[in-house]
Amino acid sequence: MIARREGLARFWHRFSRNPLSLIGLALVLIVALGAILAPWVTPYPEHAGRYVNFAEAGQPPSFRHLLGTDTFGRDLFSRVLFGYRTSLLLGVVVLALAVPVGVLLGLMAGYLQGRIGAWIMRIADVFVAVPPLVLAMAVLGVAEPSLFNAMMALTLMWWPWYTRMVYNQVRGLRVEGYVVAAQVVGAPTSHILFHEILPNCLPSVLTKLALDMGFVILIGASLSFLGLGVQPPTPDLGTMVAEGARYLPDLWWLAVFPGVAILLVVLGFNLLADGLRDAFGEG
What we know:
The protein is built from eleven helices and no strands. It is mostly helical. The protein has one domain: MetI-like (MetI-like fold, Orthogonal Bundle), CATH 1.10.3720.10. Helix 4 packs parallel to helix 7 (147-173) and helix 8 (177-184) crosses helix 9 (189-225). The mean pLDDT is 89.
């Protein structure tokens, strides 16, 4: 217990040495709390659904509506917070599905080698060869645009990156002394993979996971901007930017504020990933 506390203290010391890491952590926490508590902290939670009030449509930012209102009279601040909910849900589900699959396949391919490893890596190479956004657009082009289908499309394109990363690490770790010792004493393959090799891969996986949260949110917003992601009236940052762009420059706040919201959350996860990299001592 004491050793674990000392380890956490050292980790936090290395993480907090960079002020930008703390800024990233603060941004992520603020966005996450705002999204989770959106029904209680937003001034007009009913505006996240099917709500129309043309009498207040297109109003600029004011004390009554901090970020203004859209063309249907809905409070933009409320919709941005609910849009964060959609974006974070997308990122969490995609990575919760893609990371375990990618890590497991990378462990198997790197440790077992041979024909199994070759087949796994060739399949991963096929997916990696196609630009991520293009692959997601191709999948959603034949499926009905929705949040669920966007999650499945992004999951399909994301697992190979973890497979390749873990595969490259395992190829070096499999010849380390502690792995060879476990093989000599007859430890089962599952024990070697998950107790000897995987813990040494986790720092890189966690760092990439934090970085990828921002990228998944950004690509999800891009799909919604193109009309292939979340559909109205569900609040989504990419959809709000697309709708607001039609009214530039007169109703500039309709596109600017959702765009800034995307920028902040992506920046937050990028800075957080940099802090994790420094804390884990990966460069």
